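Reading a protein record of the kind used here takes only a little practice. Each token is a code from a learned vocabulary of local backbone shapes. With that in mind, consider the following protein and its fold in token form:
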Amino acid sequence: MAAIEVNNLQRSFEGGITAVDGVDLEVAEGEIFSFLGPNGAGKTTLVRMLTTLLRPTGGSARVGGYDVVEEAGAVRRAIGVALQEAALDPLMTGRELIRLQATLHGLPSEEVKRRADALLERVGLTVAADRRVGTYSGGMQRRLDLASALVHEPTVLFLDEPTTGLDPVSRTSVWAEVRRLNRDYGMTIFLTTQYLEEADELADRVGIIANGLIRAEGEPGALKRSIGADLIQAEVEGDVVAAADAVRAVDGIDEVQIHHNELAVVTTDGAGLIAQVAVALNGCGVPVRSLTLRTPTLDDVYLHVTGSHFAESDEPNEPEPEASS
């Protein structure tokens, strides 16, 4: 049984805004799946629907075997959720907060203390457990929020941009805990992120989302290989179309994409063809500012399927999802 099944899922808002526009998706049990997209791509709206915080306006979804609309209560018992904004009481201590969460989930009183101590140790907060949450750093608060999401031992964990705004050390710490949860407990993890490196490092599979649609899906390595073994990148001045036509005439070039004043040249033999590309560019009379050879990245995949670099996406922000309706 798949841990997450999504069929033609949609969500529209007043004013004709469509945040999720017919998503189909399946996530296997024990898999780390990453939704990669810039702000406004539809990631958070999708997560809110899958975690029963927002009703779909079309399509269907099942999480942990339960329908997110018809069996919302069962879905909530099966999942753990850590959203972008951690809802942590700054006046409580870390230990008090975890114990409260355990009590709210109906754990027996004798189990509450043991579970809280174990979770605080798991996320590296034992020393700070009796300090007020308001004194925690951003990274510590993210780890505490993660511990809170794990209190009832969920089978599926949703992490919505868990490392946004964190320093590199805190980000690495969160990555390590995500890997451990998956490796040691077989937990299915659905991770949204706007960091290319995060998706590449953590995910078994990646879905690239833009304008509410999945534009590409697969293993990170396979996605990068799908656009060619090598990428020659040329930055030119002048007639970029003429430069592209000249490069396309080189034998062994699979594809040439134009992006502003850059050419992305896809080939399986970059080392053997980069000199010929340079000669072709020189022959067409278009000045070349830079010419580099490298292997494709997820940013190149994003450029390939959407027509823009990831960091340059100008998609509008998603509307703030209401809690119901």
Observations:
- The two ends are 29 Å apart (CA to CA).
- The longest strand covers residues 17-27.
- Residues 168-185 form the longest helix (18 residues).
- The mean pLDDT is 89.
